[in-house]
Design a protein that fits this description.
The protein is mainly alpha-helical. The protein is 70% helix and 1% strand. It has a single domain, classed as Up-down Bundle (Sodium/glucose cotransporter), CATH 1.20.1730. Strands 1-2 form a two-stranded antiparallel ribbon.
Length: 552
């Protein structure tokens, strides 16, 4: 700890303690009579309005790793790999505007807490519901781990624990952050990240506004910054023997790879359980519409975050520090802040990144826990579980999920963790046909959707495993060459998923296979129960339209 700047470290610790206190105090914010209910613990009472919902959803989607990964991709390649994120966050909200209000309405009517709840009610299929729940949990684990990787990047640059040869001592700050996060999430549920999101966004916007105006003035202006980026793009990479700016894979159509990656990522984002959890926590249907209209403001901020990669390239001390750290581009932004700012503002910027990890990590763990409790434990282990038992199980599972993410972050190489998150995007995209089509039509057969899901999952996983780069023989990325063109594997797997689902539906319909129960009604997809309390959970296998029909 001798090489740690005392001022920077103190500010980070003080802000972290304040945020932790807010997380614990959130248990008393809008406190319900019984917090041991998933509507309260997991969805914050379903009562957030436009203002709070905007901070919650935005804080949920724009993670700490966003502030690390996006500019680091620009730092490595110069442009393409980083700015795709700006493109997909621009198009994601119009896509979500189409189906999320319908999901909110039917979930409010039937008291659905998870996307798998909706699948179970719509298709009367325990198998398809289990597949959606399993995929959601699987995709979230590496995503949570990457929030901790973002914290690790800050701790590394600060010098906290880096001089120790004892692995436990070196990882102790991250373990402490995990324990604090786990405890206040268990106590306060979704209310904790909701309150912290206000602090997180205030710090992030302050960090970005200062960076955009202050750093260019320190390193020669925007002309010098973009010239440094252009020079870096044209420089030959000693590993690939190609210019840094060349998209990898280096054959095929890079523009198509960029477009399919952006489109596939946009379709996947609101299929993630944590995005759905934050949306279902809102009070009214029109709150979602307003937020989908306002959330592109975060895309503007994301564009400025990407520009931090160019700034890091233009600052030679930052480039030298990254090289000294083994070429780890994830450290480029923390090193940039450390070199550019006075110690006190470096502390504020580092705290913004650390706190930025707590909000999405908490929501993701809550979403994963709700999926396990509602769609695995209650469905297959204890169907008569009370709301209090459901919540208790969710609290413990939330802790276990974060513990697993901590082990991911500590035990796995960082590049492998990143590739697992990319694989998570491919996986979660495979629930898109069942989830989104189910909000508009019941044409697809439940068994066909399950077959399509399996085909997409298997193809996507194998294709991602086979991607090789000059530095990795497997799991090298999420794009590959298909039919002579470089495309996003997730979108290719989705097309296969849809094709299998369509073909199998025709076969099952011709064979008159049982369709399964549908407990939803058409008008429920546009209902707006306003601020009326959600109905009590129905017993398993009951609901509108389910009489006499047995689910699989």
């Amino acid at each position: 700890m001798s090489n740690v700047n005392a001022v920077t470290f103190t500010i980070v610790v003080v802000l972290f303690v304040i945020v932790a206190g807010v997380g614990f105090a959130a248990a008393r914010w809008r406190r319900a009579e019984d917090m041991l209910h998933l509507n309260e613990w997991g969805l914050g009472g379903r009562g957030f309005g436009t203002f709070i919902g905007w901070f919650l959803i935005g804080g949920d989607l724009y993670t700490a790793y966003t502030f690390i990964a996006v500019p680091s991709a620009v730092f490595l390649s110069g442009a393409v790999a980083g700015f795709f994120a700006v493109s997909y966050t621009i198009i994601v909200f119009p896509i979500a505007m189409i189906f999320m209000p319908r999901l909110w309405s039917v979930s409010r009517v039937h008291n659905y807490v998870t996307p798998a709840d909706f699948i179970r009610g719509r298709y009367g299929s325990r198998g398809l519901s289990l597949a959606v729940a399993f995929t959601g949990i699987l995709a979230l684990m590496p995503y949570i781990a990457l929030q901790l990787v973002g914290i690790q990047a800050v701790l590394t640059v600060m010098g906290v624990g880096t001089t120790s040869h004892n692995t436990f001592i070196r990882d102790l700050p991250l373990i402490i952050a995990f324990l604090v996060l786990a405890i206040f999430t268990a106590l306060s549920g979704l209310r904790a990240p909701t309150m912290i999101a206000f602090i997180k966004d205030a710090l992030v916007y302050l960090m970005i506004i200062v960076a955009v105006f202050y750093i260019p003035a320190r390193i020669g202006g925007w002309g010098h910054i973009f010239a440094a980026g252009e020079a870096h793009m044209k420089a030959i990479n000693p590993t690939t023997h190609k210019p840094n700016g060349v998209f990898i894979p280096t054959t095929g159509n890079s523009q198509l790879a960029f477009a399919t990656l952006a489109l596939g990522s946009a379709c996947a984002l609101f299929c993630y359980p944590h995005a759905i959890t934050a949306t279902l926590a809102t009070r009214r249907r029109d709150v979602i519409k307003r937020n989908m209209s306002l959330l592109p403001l975060y895309s503007i901020m994301l564009g400025f975050i990407a520009l931090l990669g160019y700034m890091a390239l233009a600052d030679q001390p930052t480039v030298a520090s990254v090289k000294k750290a083994g070429g780890n581009a994830q450290l480029s932004v923390p090193f940039l802040f450390q070199h550019m700012y006075p110690s006190w503002f470096t502390g504020i910027s580092f705290a913004a990144i650390v706190i930025g990890a707590l909000v999405p990590a908490a929501i993701m763990s809550i979403a994963a826990a709700s999926l396990f409790t509602r769609n695995i434990f209650k469905e297959f282990v204890k169907p008569d579980a009370s709301p209090r038992l459901e919540t208790r199980i969710s609290q413990w599972v939330s802790f276990a999920v974060k513990l697993g993410a901590l082990l991911f972050a500590i035990g796995l190489p960082k590049t492998f963790s990143i590739n697992l998150q990319l694989l998570g995007g491919i996986w979660i995209l495979q629930v898109f046909p069942a989830l989104v089509s189910g909000l508009f039509t019941r044409w697809f057969h439940r068994w066909a959707l399950l077959a399509g899901w399996a085909a997409g999952m298997i193809f996507g996983t194998i294709a991602a495993y086979r991607v090789a780069t000059p530095t990795a023989s497997h799991w090298g990325g999420s794009t590959d060459i298909e039919f002579g063109h470089t495309v996003y594997i997730g979108l290719t797997a989705l097309l296969l998923n849809i094709a299998v689902s369509v073909a199998a539906t025709l076969i099952f319909r011709a064979a008159r296979a049982p369709q399964g129960a549908d407990e939803t009604l058409p008008h429920q997809y546009t209902a707006d129960p306003a601020e009326a309390p959600a109905p009590a959970p129905a017993a398993a296998g009951t609901g509108a339209g389910t009489s006499g029909v047995v689910s699989d």
